[in-house]
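YM 10:42: CSC1-like protein ERD4 sequence, as discussed on the call
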Amino acid sequence: MEFEAFLLSLGTSAFIFLVLMFLFTWLSRRPGNVSIYYPNRILKDMDPWEGSFSTRNPFAWIREALTTSEQDVVKLSGVDTAVYFVFLSTVLGIFTLSSLLILPTLLPLAATDTSIKNTRNATDTTSKGTFSQLDNISMANITRKSSRLWAFLVAVYWISLVTYFMLWKAYKHVSTLRAQALMSADVIPEQFAILVRDIPSPPNGLTQNEFIDSFFRDIYPETFYRSLVLTENSKVNKIWENLEGYKKKLARAEAIFAATSNRPTNKTGLLGVVGKEVDSIEYYTELINESVAKLETEQKKVLAEKQQTAAIVFFTDRVTAALAAQSLHSQMVDTWTVTEAPEPRQIIWENLKIKFFSRLIRQYLIYFIVAVTILFYMIPIAFVSAITTLENLQKAVPFMKPVVKINFIRTVLESYLPQIALIVFLAMLPKFLMFLSKSEGIPSRSHAVRAASGKYFYFSVLNVFIGVTLAGSLFDNLKALQQKPSSIVTVLATSLPKNATFFLTYVALKFFIGYGLELSRIKPLIIFHLKKKYLCKTEAEVKEAWYPGDLSYATRVPGDMLILTITFCYSVIAPLILVFGVIYFGLGWLILRNQALKVYVPSYESYGRMWPHIHTRILAALFLFQVVMFGYLGVKLFVWATFLVPLIVASLIFGYVCRRKFYSGFQHTALEVACRELKQSPDLEEIFRSFIPHSLSTHKPEDHQFKGAMSRYQDYAAISAA
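YM 10:58: structure's back
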């Protein structure tokens, strides 16, 4: 990539970001768009424009995001969202503090050396000999064996020490944040329950429910309340889903009749386009009555005959529940497996019945599938990375030669083509990785998100970062590795500088275009207005059309981690990338804070359990950075590169110490947290009912004795499912 192409890419991206930001300012003030830009506030019965437009200043949203406290974030968007912002601010702090020393020190040292002028060794240039302007301020311009390399070695130590300090501080803060939330004086249903799996077969004469009750009543005679046994719900779920669908169609038909005074009709055959034509209101009313009868019959059958080997067990106080979740209840590891109960809304019911050893086998099988996927996905990514350079593109597609010779088109293609191709490839993965994670037998959505996030992170690092880095000189690298397989660190370190400009442009594209689209919400806005005008007939359908979902941690966190890894690994080799890293995480903190306060609605609450995984992956990125710098200093023939070995060991020790000190508090609820007093005595029956699956709850309004938790849970889930 030429210097002009880089500047064009940067300038164009910045211009598009400014356009999108002003577009957001204009569109978000229009009353017809309020449900797109303020859905979180609408759902909480708050004034959408409170504080935002008390002034005509178009940047009022920035002031609001900057002045909002962490407790406001917790109140509006939950602890998990607040923890995500701790992650963003921690990384922002790491790169800002690192920049204060590295930029004024390393840039002059690199700019005043003469390595590039004295040698034309292509393996030591940032952009394959074509991007000398940035080569001159990178480590590529440092002469081999130069004493200046001491400064680069010290810079590695500085970044590492800053990272240790910021991570330790953040871990303590998140631990306190989690404890404060769990100490809440409000009733949290899952704190009074445990999840029990791998329940053995009951003795003769006892039902599964009686067996479970007697087991826990013997152990906890004073505090055991009751149990909810898992049942095989596949058939009853299908009936319930059909019933809910018929209700929506009936509401739609009634809305059309009210608006037009004409009774709507539909055909009863495939997709409503073939078959007998009937009156829609009468037809769906009849189907609803039939489905309610079927549902009641199937519910009785399920509760009596289809009990499974898992249950939710309830206690009268949360100390006992916390104690039970941490205790060994059986001599055999594969029976009476007990963990903390997830939130009712995030339980993956179909996974609870999977047996202990089956879960282990599934887990290792999924790991193998992910490893194979990473290996084979690297092939198309490496191919795309290689072919999207203009030189190779002209060879692969000869008819492109006349087009590519046009200077403007050539510059645009060089600026965006490889980065866009990479982003498209990454967009195909998340759903597949989430499917694999759920297939492990994981009991809750938040746990599945953490598992999918981990897979996506390692996939991104191995395929995108390392894959693209090695693909730049693919055949030379394969030859080198074939001759000496142990040279992988040296090959990676040698290949890194050649791709610095690619990753500089990639990071810029992510924060300018990515966050510009995030803020402006152009895509959701267009889809909503199209649906509202042509498809939606009822208020429920309109609500489904604008419902925003959550922050999508399964893809957002790994995407941030990829930028973190890239910035770490290039922070000393090409220090200019630190500026891009600071902008990425600074803009991310600002824009996503606005979105968290006004747009996104959490689909679950795990009280910061994502943090230990985030912490581990930040350390993994730091470890990779240290290893790469050890290799690159070796390539520079700097004999004191061995001074980095103690630093690599220190990272492993730091990770071990953090895990031993903090992790248990995230794995379990500490008893000192659970023992705090509540505002009022918990309604145990309401807590119990909040865990009942939708398909097993009554559909008669007069039978809803405990509407609080049930109705809140059902309404929210209906919106989420839609």
